[in-house]
Specification:
Two copies of one chain form a homodimer.
Chain A: E1 2-3, H1 5-18, H2 23-38, H3 49-57, E2 68-73, E3 76-80, H4 86-104, E4 106-114, H5 121-128, E5 132-138, E6 159-163, E7 170-174, H6 181-189, E8 199-200, H7 210-214, E9 218-219, H8 225-240, E10 262-270, H9 277-292, H10 308-320, E11 322-323, H11 326-339
Parallel strand pairs in A: 3-4
Antiparallel strand pairs in A: 1-11, 2-3, 4-10, 5-6, 5-10, 6-7, 8-9
Helix pairs in contact in A: 1-2, 2-4, 4-5
Chain lengths: 347, 347
């Protein structure tokens, strides 16, 4: 089923505001979830609304943001999210990072005590829409073992880099596991083997049987030691550089007994401080041409730039409506009952 | 055979100086090659001496550095290497980046018209040895096709991130192809199949036969679209952000008819501008403990941090001497004959 985006936005805002959240903050969280669903990164879309609401109800995420700047010299700033909603904290931090880059050419905001902030590309794109390059990293609860390990010690920490281009920005947004857990489930349901580098079993041994991952196994980092190394450096640039929590200190988002202290790294580069924007855009157009017009492999119709497919989906979904799974619709109905607000009506 | 590092340093410096290079510059190039061989990244060690010499002889790399600062505001600077040796340019750029970070908390030097600069970790480690985090990226001649392509459009652009730690720094240094070409050759020689994600054949189709890669095929990016995306963003942060060359504009280093214009991105973060160094080091010690002491998979004795194995090799090779292949010794003897300098003597 498909639902008009305005209805979903209204419903989501109502949920947050019912818990005492100011409209502007509710709207920020909703907007980031909407962006995820429009881009068909459904794992970070309205699927997360019930858990966000539960965490706010339990006092694990503040219903009113209380963000403080711990220090701010030159091109760097350290921000304490004080357990406010991750989207609200990260948006404010990225605005600050962009503003600093306009002064110094660069702006870095390190953030601690934040929460899950949705899709990383939302924030890097804020920079790219203003003729700047945005580099955003977050840590998450540990999910992967070290190379040779069989215990979760490192998150599949997402990294997004967005650069403006002649049309839509070029944007990379990736988690550092080789694949998502959902794909493991999909292979199991279809009785298919998985590639040996997607995960390891409970003993830390690579496996092609999806059930071995589901029953106590682990996802593996993308590209083995390369992805593991990137995940470790991402943890240092987020949890450690901000003076926040990291690795095994961070409980799962679905552990509703404990607060999460999530850290972000938000860097902006103001392109025009280095080269004239005309030079930048003409080079980007040339690079785009080299890539998109390069010889195609047998059977391939189009070559895509990073993020290009997501922009195509976004355009389609903006007019057609947001795809909504039956199961999620039921969860949202339950939420409406619990919060005593009007259910989403699908025509 | 093993050779004392001092002998190799002397020999290498003699080669460059014979071509009119000032001793300090010769020493910088030598030092970066030495560091590579000590860390057993032999692909970037003295193996490259003959091609560097040939490029200097042909005027493709200047025998005397002529580096100019195009602009420098706040935390950013743009440098023109004017086709000087990559190591000399990159070392100077990283020194500038570190100095700027001491003022502004961050320092970014974008460099154009440089050359191959050896191992990327050499420069990121300059920052890590001074209580700072270094992030260094370079572009290289295109080597990989786009996802779905069968034409070289993007380099396996190296990225290094180094962060200080209680003992040696934690350092990631990786190229963005799934594997190195040398490993493909090794599998062919041993009649072994390669994993299907290491490369594609001349038609852009994934293959497990190493000969398909060698005969007109291509290396694939690490983790497929993730590595490709990172390689594209790395190209933007280097060739495009510096106003330099990129993608198909860059000829191979072994094409001795044409100059290469290589670009670098050198970013330093001064940790103490964000958090006290004591807090940083105590967190790093904790993270290191979480990772190294995590449960090990069956048969695994030790878990290593990024760069740890290379530091162990470096320690061993510093006392034992540098491993030198017969074939490379012959090439260095030829070079000695040609330049009329004394050959390396192995005892």
């Amino acid at each position: 089923m498909f639902i008009e985006k305005d209805k979903l936005v209204h419903f989501s805002n109502e949920c947050f505001m019912k818990l005492g959240m100011p409209e502007e903050e509710a709207n920020t969280i909703t907007e980031v979830m909407l962006e995820a669903d429009l881009r068909e990164i459904h794992s970070h879309g309205f699927l997360r609304l019930p858990i966000y609401i539960e965490r706010i109800q339990k006092g694990l995420i503040s219903s009113k943001a209380n963000i403080s700047m711990i220090n701010n010299h030159g091109a760097t700033a350290l921000m304490d999210g004080n357990y406010s909603a991750g989207q609200v904290v990260a948006k404010e931090a990225m605005e600050k990072s962009i503003a600093m880059s306009e002064e110094s050419g660069l702006g870095l905001v390190a953030v601690k005590n934040s929460n899950h902030f949705g899709i990383t590309a939302y924030y890097s794109l804020m920079a790219a829409k203003q003729d700047k390059i945005g580099i955003v990293i977050s840590n998450v609860a540990p999910l992967m073992p070290a190379i040779g390990g069989k215990e979760k010690v490192i998150g599949n920490n997402p990294i997004s880099i967005a650069a403006p281009s002649v049309n839509e920005p070029i944007v990379l947004d990736m988690a550092l596991s080789n694949t998502a857990f959902g794909k493991i489930l999909f292979h199991k349901e279809n009785n298919k083997e998985i590639p040996a580098d997607w995960g390891v079993d409970r003993n830390g041994v690579p496996t092609t049987n999806p059930e071995d991952i589901i029953n106590g196994g682990f996802l593996s980092p993308v590209g083995g030691p390369k992805g593991f190394g990137l995940a470790v450096m991402a943890e240092i640039l987020t949890g450690i550089l901000s003076g926040g929590d990291f690795s095994k200190m961070i409980p799962s988002m679905y552990d509703t007994e404990n607060k999460q202290s999530i850290s972000h790294f938000m860097l902006t580069i103001d392109i025009k401080k280095l080269i004239p924007l005309e030079v930048y855009y003409s080079s980007i157009e040339k690079l785009t041409g080299f890539i998109k017009n390069s010889s195609k492999a047998d059977g391939v119709k189009d070559i895509y730039l990073p993020g290009e497919i997501e922009f195509m989906k976004e355009r389609a979904n903006k007019t057609r409506g947001i795809p909504l799974e039956e199961n999620l619709k039921e969860q949202l109905d339950e939420l409406a009952n619990e919060l005593k607000i009007q259910k989403l009506i699908i025509q």
